[in-house]
Each structure stands twice: as C-alpha cells, then as structure tokens.
Amino acid sequence: MDHYQYHRRAFEVDQSGADFLQLRPVDAPPKGLTTWLSGAIRAAIDDGRLPAGVRLPATRDLAQELRISRGVVVEAYRRLTDEGVVTARAGVGTVVTPLTSSPEAGEPRTDPAVPLLPRRPTAPAASTVSVDLSPGVPDLSLFPRAMWLRAERAVLAAAGPADLGYGDPRGVPALRQEVAGWLARSRGIRAVPDDIIIVAGVAQALALLARVLGAGEIAMEDPGSRGARDQLGHWGLAPVPVPVDAHGLRVADLAQTGLRTVFVTPAHQFPTGVVMTPDRRRALLDWADGDGLVIEDDYDAEYRYDRAPVPALKASAPDRVAYAGSTSKTLAPGMRLGWLLPPRRLYEQLVVAKHQSDLGSPAIPQLVFARMLATGEFARHVRLVRARHKARRDALLTALHQHLPFARVRGAAAGLHLMIQVPDLAGIADTDLVDKVREAGVLVHPLSWHRVRPGVPGFVIGYAAHPPGRLREAAKRIAAILAPLRSS
Fold first, then answer.
1. pTM for the whole thing?
2. Which CATH architecture has domain 145-378?
3. Cβ atoms within 10 Å, residue 442
4. Under 8 Å CB-to-CB from 427, ≥6 apart: which residues?
5. pLDDT band for position 119 (50/70/90)?
6. Which CATH architecture has domain 3-96?
7. Contact predicate 355/214, CB 8 Å
8. What is the pLDDT of residue 28?
9. Taking the alpha carbons of 455, 461, 462, 463 in that order, is the dihedral positive or negative?
C-alpha cells in the first residue's frame, strides 16, 4: 500500500455515505471545509486510524485529492498544530505528534516531576497507563528545536575563547542583561544584570537560599508544592504549613507562626490555582517589612488565559522578596536554566554559594537563550505555546463539566494544571481514588501529596502534555470511576 492509499483509507468517515477524500466543496457541512477537515483528521488520530509518527500528506497533494483550496488544508493543519495534535518538522512535513514515551513493560515506573513522594499509587503494568496527567510537565514535543539550533549555530560562530572559560558565577553577562529586560516586560520587575544570578532551575535557587539562610523553619503554603517542600527540607529548612484560601496565603495565620521567612507561589498558587488578591499581597509585604523574607516561585506565570498576569511581588518590594523563575515550563525542565533575584543583603552570600556549588552554569546554553531573548524568538514561542495550552485547557474543562458536573474545578484561569475536588466521597482517601483511576489507564496526583493538613479529597491534573482528544478521553475514564463511588 503506497502512502496516499494509506491516507485514503485512514481518512474514510461516514459523511452522507461518501468517501471523505472524494467529497466536493459543495458537500461540506455548514461549519465549513476547514472545521470539517481538521475535525476528520483529529477524529482519525483520536481513534488510532492515524497512529503517532505518521506523516500527513503534503498540503498541495491533499488539496488536489479533495478538490478543495490548498488554503483550507493549510489552515486545518495550522489548527491541529496549534492544538499540538500534529507537529510540523523541517524536511519531514507534518506528522502526528507522538505520545510521551513510557517505560518498557516490567520496568518500575517513576515520576520525576515530584520526587520523594510517599504513598504512590500501586503500579500496574506500565502499558495500562495510556494518559499521564502528572502536573508540572509541559509538552516536551513543543520544544523549539529549529529555533534553538539556529541560535546555537550563531552563538558558536561568534563565541571567542573567553566565552568557553571559567566565567562569572553569577551567569553570562549577556543573559543577565536579557533576563532583566524580559522580566521588566513580562513581570514588571525593575532589575539590572547585577541583581541577577543564573541558576540551574528553581530547585538550585531554593538550595542556595537554604544554605545561606541556615537551618531553621520556613513557612509554606498548605496545600502547596510538595517538590519545593522536599527541596527546602533536604537543605535544612523545616516547613511549617500555613493555610491557603480563595484569596491566597492567609497572612494572619503566617504572622501567628512567628517565622520570618515564607515560600509562596502568588501568581498562580500550586496546586489550588488561586491568584493572591491585592489585599493579601499588601499584607504579605507588610509582614515582611524589616527582616522578613518572601521567597517567590513564579513557576508558570507566563500562562494566564483570561487576562494579563499579575505583576510579580518582587516588583513591589525588591528588598523583601527573593524571586525565582526558570525555563522549565516554557522550554523544558531538562534545560536547567533559571534565575534568582534576591534582596541585596543576600546577594553576595548567594554568589559565593553558587560558585562553591558548581563554579557557574554552562556558558553555551546561556548564550543561546540570551540570543533567543534578544531576537524576540523566545517571546514568539511563549505566545504559540500559550495558545496551545489554552486549547487543551478548554477541552479538558468542557469534558470535566460534561462528565463530572459534581466536581469542583479550580485553577482554570492560568498555568498548566487543574485542581479537582470531589465532595460527598467522605471516608475514601484520594490516594485510593488515584489507584482506581490509574487502573483505568490515567495517571493523576492525589491532592493529599501536596498538603499537610487533612481536607476534601481531590486530584491535581496536568493537561499540557496531551492533545484535546486524549484529555477528553481521560475525563471520561475518571468520571467512570468517580460517579459510582459518589452515588453509592
């Protein structure tokens, strides 16, 4: 069977009894050819007729076979690309986006996104997990390979011997300059290069801060990031939980702890998705006046879907906030590129700690990223990825409202995850619910992994790494598990 014979069979659908590839424009449904064509391709992908990795026909060839305008095919492919269902590859064409690779059958499955977590769901055969909705994982197939390659070639062509030696432990000056500009434009932070330390992601920023602050206690949001809690605890800062409500961290409760250091995610709280209100922001900064320190993790602030992101806390109180960010959600966690903007009183100590840790972050990736920022390519990439994530969020939300109308969904306005709470399931631990959902082929996090105090059972669901069709199917499977339990 040749290439186009395969696609002729793959695209066959029931449209008034006619073969999909033999339809004329006048046979198109009222929504129009583009919607119809993209829907037919999407359906073929969702039900497996077009498997991952298969190359779609060239736009010109498919347009000729369908006897429609090439522009219709181009627009249909563009829509599918924006959804992440297909990927355009230079020199290859448009291919069905592969699923994230999974461990071979029989291998133990681990979740690198949240290490050291107790009470993981019982692991069935790896092949039974078809949709991994672990939070904190972006769609790694969207990494801008061509963009990175262009920038890396330009950097290597221009780099001199000094660029390849032991450099400034604070980071390459060009990158610190560009990061300062990026944060001014995107987060409202006024900074100069000498305010910035380039680090290996937020994890290293927390490790450096913990080493400089010394052993003791730190206030943390509850529920909050289990990964951050484990990281700070490993370096000697014992977490003290402070409740989070619909307005963000409860600053009055924070004050009652007597502590002077707190870790927060104010732009999009993890895992509740709450955006800290202006009153709470002012109260938190007032609490930090004097010797207080707010550690601000701005982990996915680039992804706000209903309006512009709120400014960073750092913008309002640079002397009271240690601000940490990274490219882990915009490029890939494996890049290990991030930045730390501490108060001036801690800066020199942190630079020394960074130098003692690794002598400085790798120079070439810093120069490449600096070039992407300077040319505007990184900003364009973020806009593209934001549009794809919004489409995926919308698909998951619609499916959850349809199949789980009794669930409370939070955090939908921003970020890469949702928090779902399920009332009327008293007595059933969310870890047990997650085990049942996993047996149905869907991997999610129980909310209890990310909280210290007891509360309503729930899930934390990441949606960035899967196209809409798979997200809709995952919602159906979750509902099939939860609905009978709630009614029993």
1. 0.75
2. 3-Layer(aba) Sandwich (3.40)
3. 25
4. none
5. very low
6. Orthogonal Bundle (1.10)
7. no
8. 55
9. negative
